[in-house]
């Protein structure tokens, strides 16, 4: 997923329909997001998981100067709760795109 302002990418992320365990984010997902940030020239990107024990984390790829934000939604909530989470997530994405 990406947001663009003209020909400039302002946000990059990926959505995974899988559950992640606390502190056990798949390396392949992190590598993929790192590649997206490199390809777009962005300092950060976001991985969004359908479910997980850890609500949010940030991994820093020190030698590349990249920040990889990981977010897990709680899909076990009632529809209004899920919509609230999606609304908060949309705000975070908007803020990241504006900051880029």
Would you kindly provide a written description of the structure presented here, covering whatever features stand out?
By secondary structure, this protein is of the alpha/beta class. It has one domain. The protein has two helices and five strands, in the order E-E-H-E-E-E-H. It has a five-stranded mixed beta sheet, sandwiched between helices. The longest helix has 21 residues.
Index terms:
100 residues, alpha/beta, five-stranded mixed β-sheet, 39% strand, single chain, 2 helices
Question: What layout of secondary structure does this protein have?
Answer:
Blueprint (H helix, E strand, L loop, with lengths): L1 E4 L2 E13 L6 H14 L3 E9 L3 E6 L4 E7 L6 H21 L1
Parallel strand pairs: 2-3, 3-5
Antiparallel strand pairs: 1-2, 4-5
How are helices and strands ordered from N to C? EEHEEEH
User: Given the structure, what is the number of helices?
Assistant: 2
Q: Looking at the chains present, what oligomeric state does this protein adopt?
A: single chain
The class by helix and strand makeup works out as alpha/beta
Tell me the domain tally.
1
The portion of residues forming beta strands comes to 35-45%
For the terminal residues, how far apart are their CA atoms? 15 Å
Across the major sheet, the strand order is 1-2-3-5-4
Q: How big is the Rg?
A: 13 Å
What characterizes the major β-sheet? 5 strands, mixed
Large-scale geometry: globular
Mean pLDDT figure: 89
Helix content: 25-40%
Which spans of ≥5 residues are poorly predicted at pLDDT below 50?
Answer: none
Strand element count: 5
């Amino acid at each position: 997923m990406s947001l663009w302002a003209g020909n400039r990418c302002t946000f990059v992320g990926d959505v995974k329909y899988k559950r992640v365990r606390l502190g056990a984010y798949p390396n392949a997902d992190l590598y993929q997001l790192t590649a997206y940030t490199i390809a777009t020239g962005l300092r950060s990107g976001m991985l969004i998981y359908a479910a997980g024990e850890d609500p949010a984390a940030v991994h820093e790829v020190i030698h590349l100067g990249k920040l990889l934000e990981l977010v897990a939604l709680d899909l076990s909530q009632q529809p209004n709760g899920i919509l609230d989470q999606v609304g908060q997530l949309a705000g975070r994405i908007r803020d990241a795109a504006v900051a880029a």
